[in-house]
Amino acid sequence: MGDKKGILFVLIGAGSFGFTPIFAKLGFSNGYTLGQINIIQMLISLVLLWSIVIIKRSSFRGLNKKNIKQIMITGSFVGLTSIFYYGSMIYLPASLAIILLFQFVWIGILFEWILSKVRPSLITLLAMALILIGVFFASNILIAVWKNCLRWDLYLGFLRHLHMQDL
């Protein structure tokens, strides 16, 4: 049952990240600012999480000042992620913003390798390669490079034409 519960949580989390660009783009189009959208998200999260705490009747006996400080620092990074993510949606299409968001997977593995000296297993390296291949295709980078090459060809062709006029 534990594996199925974990899969369900991953699906809910992925779905949540998939829906947030829709709400952020709608908010921006209706004149809401980045700060207002982030505050609404934090308030909704606050209500949902405290509802879970109340329903489960969680105990806070093991908490001390050190734990609370660690929780606050972790929460600050989560908040910054939301600010940067929604901020990127002001300038980028939502599809590209979500592709950039999920780069944390391979970047986290890379940081762990460099900072903690924990060498990733072969399966982890293969997963990283698969992620990067997926990002490569999902971002349509080949089309962007091709369009850029076509533009340079046009510019160079135009400059060649101007140069030929001088002769």
Automatic annotation (TrEMBL):
Is Signal a UniProt keyword of this protein? Answer: no
- Could you list the residue ranges that cross the membrane? 7-28, 34-55, 67-86, 92-115, 122-146
Could you tell me the membrane topology recorded for this protein? Answer: Multi-pass membrane protein
Q: Where is the EamA domain?
A: 5-139
Domain of life, per lineage: Bacteria
Span of the secretion signal? Answer: none
Task: Please state which protein family the record places this protein in.
Answer: Belongs to the EamA transporter family.
Instruction: Write down the InterPro entries for this protein, in alphabetical order.
Output: EamA_dom, EmrE-like
Q: Is Cell inner membrane one of the keywords?
A: no
Q: Which UniProt keywords apply?
A: Membrane, Transmembrane, Transmembrane helix
Q: Which Pfam families match?
A: EamA (PF00892)
User: Where is this protein localized, as stated in its record?
Assistant: Endomembrane system
The protein here is known as Membrane protein
